[in-house]
Every structure is written in C-alpha cells, then in structure tokens.
Amino acid sequence: MRQHLVIDADDTLWENNIYFEHAVHAFTTWLNHSRLTAAEVRAVLDEAERLMGYGAANFTKSLEATYRRLAEKEVVEHDLKQVRHFGEQILAHPLQLLDGVQETLDYLAARHELILLTKGDLEEQKLKVERSGVEQLFRHMMIVHEKDVHTYQHIVTESQLDPQATWMIGNSPRSDINPALAAGLNAVYIPHPHTWHFEHEEVVPVRKGRLLQLASFGELRSYF
Ligand SMILES: [Mg+2]
Hints:
Layout (H helix, E strand, L loop, with lengths): L3 E4 L9 H15 L6 H15 L3 H15 L6 H16 L8 H11 L1 E7 L2 H11 L7 E5 L4 H10 L7 E5 L2 H10 L3 E4 L21 E3 L11
Parallel strand pairs: 1-2, 1-4, 2-3, 4-5, 5-6
This protein binds magnesium ion.
C-alpha cells in the first residue's frame, strides 16, 4: 500500500552536525582557556546559540559572542577573523549524502509519496536541499522553524494525509520521533552517532502509531 513518507534532512539524508562538532572542537582547542574545560566553554557557546538562533550563520555569530565573553586577552580583529573562520568552514563544506541514501530515495520515490521536512534557517536549508541533488524525488519540501506536535498535526491537515499511512523518518527523538508519534503518525527512528545534543531525548513508548528503529537509511528498502 502506498504510504506518505515524511523525511528529515540533516543527519538523516546527509551529514550536518559533525561539521558543527568539528568547529566547536577547533574553536575550543584554539581558545585554550586557562581555567575552563572544553565542556564549560561549550556550555557558554550553547547559551549564546539559544539567544542567537540556530543554523551555520548564527553559529558563527555565537562563536564570536562566546569569544568576546571568554577571551583572556584584548579582543582584536585578527582573532575575531579566526573565530569567524571556524564557523564559516561549516558552510564551505561540500554536502555529503549518507551511505545508501541516493539509491534508497530512488527506490522509495517510485513506490511512495515523499515529503521532505527540515527545520532551521530557511535560506540555508533551501541551499542544502538544492545542493543535495535529491529535491526532485520529493512531492514537496517543508522548511519549518520548529518540529513539535503542532507541526505534525498541521502537516497532516494541510497535506490531507492519513496518519495511519504516514511515517516520519528521522534521527532526532526530540524533533522527528516523539512529536510525530504524539500526533498519531508512525515513525522510523534512524539514530546517527553525531546527533546534535539539543536533539537528544528518550524515545517515548508508542501509544497510537507504530515505531521502527533501523540502523541505516538503506534498511528502509526492506520495510517500504
Ligand atoms: Mg536531523
């Protein structure tokens, strides 16, 4: 039977968070703070990110704000430039589909209706989708500010989906799995080892929908 497959993008179709982790590591190492541990520096950065907003462009601003707060010497343009460079590297990175994604999307698109659902900065996400080369396999694409239970309820109504024949597929328990299940959809959880720590959450036991957990995107071919 034809299903509606709503698919997350970052860290489900392509690598994303690992580039942020590399940038944080490079920044923390370079900062080499005399009193704060890497985890403490990270906590200051997290706070800046919550204020500044998410996405690579905002991340660069958050790095700069963190540096201004933690610098143990006079803040000069030369060092600020270096700090911004750590963030700018994220956008410079070529987009890399995860293993098996291209073949699996080709396979799924021929059998089911695919909808891309990603959250974040509108322009940045659009650009990533374009660079991915898989855009044409989706019936449509949605870029949202937040993925919560209301987002999923809205998608069901707006796209006139049958919740029982709709699956949310993604790597984030907090944004993809739990709210989709709470909205009465089914879900496929595909953990990624470098999931952003803001997205960590326990997967809640299923009440209505069905829940599958797979080790890789390619395994979808065995179920759909
Ligand atoms: Mg994701």
